TrEMBL record:
Any GO molecular function: granulocyte colony-stimulating factor receptor binding
Entry protein name: Uncharacterized protein
Biological processes annotated in GO: immune response; positive regulation of myeloid cell differentiation
Cellular component GO terms held in the UniProt record: extracellular region
Domain of life: Eukaryota
Cited Pfam families: GCSF (PF16647)
Family from the record: Belongs to the IL-6 superfamily.
InterPro entries reported for this sequence: 4_helix_cytokine-like_core (IPR009079), GCSF/MGF (IPR040117), IL-6/GCSF/MGF (IPR030474)
Amino acid sequence: MCNNHGLCRKEELRLIRLQLGLHDIPLDQCQSVTFNLEGCFSHLSSGLMRFQKLVLAFPGHLPKRELHKLESDIRDLLVNIMEEMDTQGITTSDIPALTLPKDTSTFQEKAALVLILSDLVDFMRDIHHLLV
């Protein structure tokens, strides 16, 4: 984003996030001090469902092979988490349908995908740190 479009400042990226309705997925209930098993699993599963839907919302900006692999990896992790939730007797909650802006430009779609993938990396890194 910075090199190609000059969007280097956090404020600019924050505005794009707001415009596209992208927001952070909380994992506060997964932290050791405030750990809540049901809340943590709920955040993990809803976060992964959201990322899965977001990645699939912009299919034309990733090669099909990479898109399929990414979606498959997210789905596999989600299935594992949902199986563990079932084992623990935790019910899953549906996430609200995604409402993305209608008339987005190609630039906005590419920016959204960059932000989504960046958020996904951060989300996975956070999960890793919480579980280790």
